Amino acid sequence: MRLSWNSYRMTPITEVAGRRVPLSNLDKVIHPASGTTKGEILHYYATVAGAILPHLRERPVSFLRYPDGPAGALFFTKNPPPGTPSWVRTVPVPHTDDPGARQVVLDGLAPLMWAANLVVEFHTPQWTAAEPGVADRLVLDLDPGEPAGLPECCAVALWLRERLAADGLDAYAKTSGAKGLHLLVPIAPTPSAAVSAYAKGLALAGEAGLPELVLHRMKRALRPGKVFVDHSQNAAAKTTATPYTLRARALPTVSTPVTWDEVESAARGGEGLVFLPDDIAGRLARHGELLAPLTDPGRDRPPLP
């Protein structure tokens, strides 16, 4: 990839992995609280491509676009955006009212940089294009209702980790990039409906085990001071923020894999788990790719009980 930059002020990329990728408005400030420009966003994705691409490959991607920053218009789209290059792969997605619908799959550096130039959050389902509606991972989105916050989410995550381990399942954690925490569990390919049912059972078990803290229903009136264990993202039609995606917030927070030691520390009220683009390369150097078990094709994936 031909790249050049000076103090993060990048010149347009003209060629990426043999593809011409026109870039635009590199000096435009997208995240005003940090002054982060579009060029810096592109630099971030180029830097972490090796980590994010395994989580994007073979999964139809949905985009939350915010080209004028998080305070501007935000729109969620599953359809290939107008002007999608012919070399960006698309796949049929049957879980839609439109039988001819297709979605983008980002299977290399050039497609990743083309998509990043649109200024998007990346969202992916729990299944791959080869087996639509057959999940190879389970996700639980832990969403706190004020005054509950990240420490409470981490306490719930630790409880759920033990509960999953009792069923022979390994859980991995990442920040949502917003207020909460995501737990991801590699599983043997299982119909999404069955995964959804099991995930709902986990949320109900959490509510029974930690009634003062856990909620399995989304109803807003019940949320204050509790952690909503959102099991719904296991449905075939739902998506979750992809690991390492930037989020459309005032600060460019990253949905970042974290260690269980970090989760335990945060549960005790220790250091918070908020990460920005400049943090990620150092974390990868220190910890490696903490979610690698989710994308390792040679790893045995246990069945749901």
TrEMBL record:
NCBIfam families: ligD_pol. GO terms for molecular function: DNA ligase (ATP) activity. Its EC number is 6.5.1.1. The lineage of its organism: Bacteria, Bacillati, Actinomycetota, Actinomycetes, Kitasatosporales. Pfam families: LigD_Prim-Pol. InterPro entries: LigD_pol_dom, MtLigD_Pol-like, NHEJ_LigD. It comes from the Bacteria. The keyword Cell membrane does not apply. Residues 37-288 form the DNA ligase D polymerase domain. CDD domains: MtLigD_Pol_like. Coiled coil: none annotated. This is DNA ligase. Keywords: Ligase. The gene is ligD.
